[in-house]
Amino acid sequence: MGVEICVEGLTKSFGHQVIWQDVSLTLPAGEVSVMLGPSGTGKSVFLKTLVGLLKPERGSITIQGRDLTKLRERDLYEVRKLFGVLFQDGALFGSMNLYDNIAFPLREHTRKSESEIRRIVLEKMDMVGLVGAERKLPGEISGGMRKRAGLARALVLDPEIILFDEPDSGLDPVRVAYLNQLIVDLNAQIDATFLIVTHDIASARLVPDNIGLLFRRELVMFGPREELLTSDEPVVRQFLHGRMQGPIGMAEEKDAAQVEQELAQIDDSAHVQERTPRLLPGPGVARPPRWEAIARREARLRQEEVAGA
Length: 309
Prior knowledge:
Elements: E1 5-14, E2 17-27, E3 32-36, H1 43-50, E4 58-63, E5 66-67, H2 73-79, E6 83-86, H3 98-109, H4 114-127, H5 143-155, E7 161-165, H6 173-190, E8 193-197, H7 201-206, E9 210-215, E10 218-224, H8 225-229, H9 234-241, H10 256-265, H11 289-308
Parallel strand pairs: 3-8, 3-9, 6-7, 7-8
Antiparallel strand pairs: 1-2, 1-4, 4-5, 9-10
Protein name: D-methionine ABC transporter, ATP-binding protein
Region (Disordered): 268-287
GO molecular function, one term: ATP hydrolysis activity
């Protein structure tokens, strides 16, 4: 079962440059959350701060009653065992085959026998669809396979929290669709708390329970996906619709007068907010009660749409 992460008043700077400030949110236990935002808004920095690799200037990160920002290194090391991390490029060791890459955390952090390590590694490789690729080197496989190998490695210590740093970067739309389904299936199987940093709007509409958006050094919004998908907040609407008109500029922030003029020119009168169906676990994947409730809700909404058509 995943664990809740409670973030209060978190601020991170590098020298005089404030990355973000006063960030407060709660990642619900066992749910999938997505963090969006333009490039350079500190999304990856947020992930590194959550896992204790970067220390914030202010604020708290509370997990199981412990504030990570105040822990000694030895205690922080123990809390990090709750986490699994999928890095952007998989972060695999190029000289190791996939089996040894995935087995690495078990050999480094546990005293398990090689037979037990083999059982766990093959189990995780099966979960991500990599059975039969154990002896391949990272340079011999596709980007999508490297992502899945990195995910298998993130799973071997049975983490209760999994952080995904732009898992869809460098992948074509078909592989992104497969990866999205894999993420949903894994959440149903292991019930861990997921936080995904992504730029892919389609993924953000389909996959998560919750969505957040970082912009101008602050958390603009964080909440249930339906709230953000239907939000009238200008920066949220601009980002989710991928349009130029709005507060987000190409490089620098736009001035208020320009933003106001652009927003006034947008004709939303013809815009109909379409409901985005939730991506559900695939056939053969057991659904825990939370996912059963989501599936029932989706079925009810589809029936209402058909009846109203």
